[in-house]
Each structure stands twice: as C-alpha cells, then as structure tokens.
Amino acid sequence: MLTLQxxxxxxxxxxxxxxxxxxxxxxxxxxxxxxxxxxxxNEKIILEKGDLLYIPACQSYYGxxxxxxxxxxYVIEFTADTPPLPLLQNNHWVKSRTGAYxxxxxxxxxMHNEWTEKHLYADVLGLAILYECLALWNRELDxxxxxxxxxxxxxxxxxxIMNYYQQKITKEExxxxxxxxxxxxxxxxRRVTGQTIxxxxxxxxxxxxxxxxxDSTLTVSEISESVGYRDLSYFQRIFKRETGxxxxxxxxxxxxxxx
Length: 259
Known about the structure:
Layout: E1 2-12, E2 16-17, E3 26-33, E4 35-40, E5 43-48, E6 51-55, E7 61-65, E8 71-80, E9 94-97, H1 101-117, H2 122-143, H3 148-164, H4 171-178, H5 182-193, H6 197-215, H7 220-226, H8 232-243, H9 247-251
Antiparallel strand pairs: 1-8, 2-7, 3-6, 3-8, 4-5, 4-7, 6-9
C-alpha cells in the first residue's frame, strides 16, 4: 500500500534540495523542462525533460540546479508498505526516459492541482494517479526500451494525428503512413506512449478545444464541430472525462470584450 506525503512543483534557476523528506518516504521525480543534477549516494544523475527518477527511502540524496539553466519538475514523496511493483522493491535508484512522458506529465499535473487546491478526496485521486504512473513506468522497464526507430515511427504517427485530428483517424491510416501493418502501428503506439491511438486523438482534440474555449469567441457547439465532434453531447462527455470540467467552465476564463 502506498501513502502520499507530498506533491510539489519545483522550477527556477536557484533550486536546491538537501534530501530532507518524511521518514520512510521514497521520491519520484519527473523532469518537464531544462536540466537538474542529483547526487544519490556518490552517484551523479542528470535529469532532463522526459526523465523519471525513483529514489528509494533507503538512499540519501541531494540535488541542485545547473548554473543559469532554468528547470521545471514535479516531485512526489510517498511511503510504501509491501510495495506492489518490482520498481518499488528496488533498493537502488532508477532513472530512465519514459516514452509515456506526455501521459504521465498530464496525470501528474492533475495530481499536483488536486493536491495544492485541496479538493475533496484529492489524496484518493492522487494515490490512484501515482499507482497509474508507476505501473506505466514499470511496464516500460519490464518490456525494455523501445528502439530509436520505433520512437521515430511513433513521432511520425503523432505528427499525423496533430495534422488531421479533426478527422476520424484509424490504425489502418497510421499503419499505411508508416508503412507497417495496422496492428503493428496500434501496438507500437500504445507501447511507446502508454495510450491507444483513440485516447491520443481525444486528448489532442480536447487540448485544442480548451484553447478555443478560452481564447476565441466561438460557441461550444462550434468548437465541438471544429475539433472533430459532430455530436455535441458526445463532445461534452469526452471533455468532462478528460478534464473533469464542462466546456462552459473554461469559457469563464475568456477575456472580457472591451466596453
């Protein structure tokens, strides 16, 4: 069983961490921008965007910024009784660059927001997200890193999706685009990103919809149509599932027109 102790975001050019944390707590770090340095025991670890670092409770550490280099990262401290994953049964630090970076970053951002805003049941939701992120990472570690060629193919599929997300996108299209079978394309995409093609398309559409809800004068119906949802009620269900809010809640942040 895991217990959350702290969720925080560190950013800037003058960060330093002396390794103080609750007794028995382990640390999970996701680097989202720039570069920082950790020393765990006598080992030097450089973290850059997309890197995950796990420091077990039994290892002491400290960390600091690279001089003049701006950085941003998310730090989660938690205790683990009878750790449920092989990763957490390790008594040595673990670091790798995760292929599921976009998904894990999005989930940890949600956890951080829930934790800092002290929403009802934030600890329960945060714990569920921590389990999810650790499980995704442990799966990657067990399967072994994807080849650079595989990452390149997935990046090509992502680019295709971002160009055509308003349309229906199938594994057949993506397979043809990278000159592989549909099933190979779908399996590779999920292995590297931690998401299905459909999940990734929905997230791309919702991300664009959020931008339009805040920074345009379009109605919810018009935005739904523009991002690829012909059925307004379906768009609203997907949007609520992805963000936890309704589209109209985001419209409250629109700049007021000049009087």
